[in-house]
Write a structure and sequence with these properties.
α17 crosses α19. The protein is mainly α and about 725 residues long. The chain has 30 helices and 6 strands. It has 3 domains: about 270 residues, no CATH class; about 120 residues; about 120 residues.
């Protein structure tokens, strides 16, 4: 259905303009609102949205322009259309997947960045049309496998008939589409980006041709909206209050993915109910996972210092045996996490880079240590201890990585990360200039200084010892030495150093400007990474070595049947009973073990179940709201229609129609139940102010000789 949005258009806007009868500029957007059916597959859903986004965003505008000016009129109309008519459960997933695609596209960067911002704006504005419980449903909805849809397999059928394999990942058995897995995170990222690119580039192709091709969205199977947002760097989306409430709920265990530890348990998001949940399910709560991780790293650090202090060059000591066990358990746990989360999502956490360096240095140490002892090579033995000393560069910061959950440290870490990236890029230029001068000085002064001596001199000059250059410039060459050295000192001490300082300052300012978003992004990735394991029996290190030694050989000769899973569960309960007891004691002290609301503070109507939006129920809710909402035409919209909805896009008004609106009190009550007395007073006061403001606007229009129904053209 084509839409027409009338609004004041700033000079320079490339939209079509026609003068209105009152002399105003009319901006016409010829775009077809996507007709999204509840049974559309993810592939079709993404394609429909991409067509509309490409039609309404045709200029490289900024995020703020899309959010606050007439450039975002088409987005407001889309948000209102989706909020009123769309009940597809994967709508948020599709918008964030498109944001990822447009943001990563290198061609026409300005326009694609604008479209990426548009997708993110629509995604989080769409959430404003939902209650908190419905937001949970949409954010935790995982994209189903298209093969299951074709075969008529529903989640209920799967839960009743299938038993998850211990080798499957958190994101479901459909992640097997990644196998054999790409060797690097960039490879898998390219797979996903090509998937969306094939959709957006084939917008005009025939459906029959598309059906013959491989489904380009297959690589998104079983990803939920929060995971896609983390990979796509949708920081504004993740920083929304209701989204952060979900993240915090997962962190604290108010939203869990496993409610029992039994053979037939099925992973799905649900609200935690202390009265019915298995105490061993608390082992999967990210808060407790990270707390135990800190304790593990503290013990790891203690063994590390003990081995370096002991430093026995003649034999492999008991402390080194324990250190090797801790390193092996840590490496196996990281490998399991990488397999479960996938290389793309695993690479989003900067601390995992530290983990890889720790594992590499640790194994290098043990290999050289064993070889040196076997060959009685004292040099290799001493070198192995020196290599182990490098471990502290990564282990000590890793122990204190929990500080990234603090707003202060969580903001500094992204700043340092961006400054490091810019520093590496800038050093390429420095190295090029450095080698040019090094070559010249080495050849001109070959009779006075060796190549190694000249390398040392120029390095000291670059790091601030300019006096060294003035001392040796005549010795290099009486004619060329002084001018070349003065030029090098000016470049290194003034131009390059000043440019580097200014660039790093700009990098810091760029990140610190969005400090809250950066911190919440780090926090969200931290939480989501801790909850991305689909293994029913997740062993904490170093207990995971027991499972590796006992069950890995058995898996080679026997299938992973019910008895095999039962044995793993028994071993987990036997080894982790003290940890579960400590968790239960902690929750008892906090007073949260035996209490908790049914939905753990997530408000809203009970039309849906968590992570399973019910289209029929949502339509029922919209029907209940319909008599309080204005019936507007989506084909002719006034400026008030495009802007009166604010961030949510609510309140589109048709030409010449008298409208009735639900009061703020009615909207609040319908969405969240009866408010408190204090909230009632505030809502009543706000409603009175709105009424007075409306009367003032009508009075001003009457003075100007306008009819009230024309207020949309103002």
């Amino acid at each position: 259905m084509p839409i027409r949005v009338k609004s004041r258009v700033p000079q320079g806007d490339g939209a079509h303009r026609t003068p209105s009868p009152r002399g105003r500029i009319v901006r016409t957007i010829d775009a077809e609102l996507p007709d999204i059916a509840d049974d559309d597959c993810f592939r079709v859903l993404v394609k429909k949205l991409s067509v509309y986004i490409a039609d309404v965003v045709e200029l490289p505008v900024t995020f703020e322009q899309l959010r606050t000016t007439s450039a975002g009129d088409g987005l407001r109309v889309l948000v209102d259309h989706l909020g009123r008519n769309c009940t597809h459960p994967a709508i948020v997933n599709a918008l964030l997947a498109l944001k990822w695609h447009y943001g990563a596209t290198t061609e026409d960067k300005g326009l694609n960045d604008a479209r990426a911002n548009a997708c993110e704006i629509v995604a989080w504005r769409f959430l404003t049309h939902l209650s908190e419980r419905e937001v949970v449903d949409y954010c935790l909805y995982e994209i189903p496998d298209p093969k299951d849809a074709e075969e008529g397999v529903t989640p209920t059928d799967e839960e009743a008939a299938a038993v998850p394999d211990e080798r499957t990942s958190l994101l479901g058995r459909a992640r097997s589409v990644f196998t054999p897995s790409p060797s690097s995170g960039s490879d898998k990222r390219n797979l996903l980006l090509r998937s969306i690119s094939r959709l957006t580039m084939s917008m005009t192709s025939d459906d029959g041709d598309e059906e013959e091709d491989e489904d380009p969205t297959a690589h998104f199977t079983n990803l939920n909206a929060l995971e896609i947002a983390a990979i796509a760097n949708a920081k504004r989306f993740l920083s929304q209050a209701v989204v952060q409430k979900i993240i915090t709920g997962i962190w604290n265990g108010d939203i869990i993915f496993w409610d029992s530890l039994s053979v037939h348990s099925v992973k799905k998001p649900r609200f935690y109910k202390p009265a019915t949940a298995d105490p061993f399910s608390r082992l999967r709560v990210p808060k407790y996972l990270k707390s135990f991780e800190v304790l593990f790293f503290v013990s790891f650090l203690f063994l590390y210092y003990a081995v370096l202090m002991e430093r026995d060059p003649t034999r492999f000591t008991t402390l080194e045996v324990f250190l090797s066990l801790w390193l092996a358990a840590f490496a196996y746990d990281e490998l399991s996490e990488w397999i479960d989360a996938g290389s793309v999502f695993y690479a989003t956490d900067v601390w995992n880079i530290f983990d890889m360096f720790m594992i590499g240095i640790g194994f290098t140490y043990f290999i050289m240590r064993i070889v040196g002892l076997e060959t009685h090579n004292s040099y290799l033995v001493e070198l192995s201890f020196d290599i182990l000393a490098l471990e502290a560069l990564f282990m000590v910061p890793r122990v204190f990585s929990i500080l990234s959950l603090s707003p202060y440290w969580g903001t500094l870490i992204p700043c340092l990360k961006e400054m490091g990236k810019d520093f590496v890029k800038f050093m390429v230029l420095v190295v090029v200039i450095y080698f040019g001068f090094l070559t010249t000085f080495s050849l001109v002064g070959r009779d006075s200084y060796t190549f190694n001596d000249m390398t040392g001199f120029l390095t000291r000059i670059f790091f601030g010892s300019s006096a060294v250059g003035f001392d040796i410039m005549n010795n290099i060459d009486p004619v060329f030495g002084p001018p070349l050295m003065v030029l090098f000192i000016i470049l290194s001490s003034i131009l390059l150093t000043g440019s580097l300082t200014g660039m790093l300052s700009n990098s810091f300012s760029r990140v610190i400007t969005h400090a809250r978003e950066e911190y919440l992004y780090v926090y969200s990735v931290y939480v989501l990474e801790a909850s991305t394991s689909n293994r029913l029996t997740h062993f904490y290190p170093p207990f995971n070595l027991l499972a590796l030694v006992i069950f890995r050989p058995l898996r080679l000769v026997m299938p992973s049947d019910t008895n095999f899973r039962r044995a793993r569960i028994l071993l987990l309960k036997a080894t982790h009973l003290p940890i579960v007891a400590a968790i239960e004691f902690y929750e008892w002290l906090r007073g949260t073990a035996g209490k908790g609301t049914q939905y753990n503070g997530f408000r809203g109507p009970r039309y849906t179940t968590i992570a399973s939006p019910n289209p029929a129920a949502r339509k029922q809710r919209h029907q209940q709201h319909h008599h309080l909402q204005p019936k507007s035409s989506s084909t002719n919209l006034t400026p008030g229609a495009a802007s009166s909805g604010g961030e949510g896009g609510i309140g589109i008004v048709g030409h010449g129609e008298s409208t009735t609106r639900a009061t703020p009190y009615e909207r609040y009550s319908q969405a969240f139940g009866d408010p408190s007395a204090e909230m009632e007073d505030r809502i009543a006061e706000l409603s009175a102010k709105i009424d007075r403001l409306t009367e003032l606007v009508v009075a001003l229009q009457a003075l100007q000789g306008q009819k009230p129904s024309d207020c949309g053209d103002a």
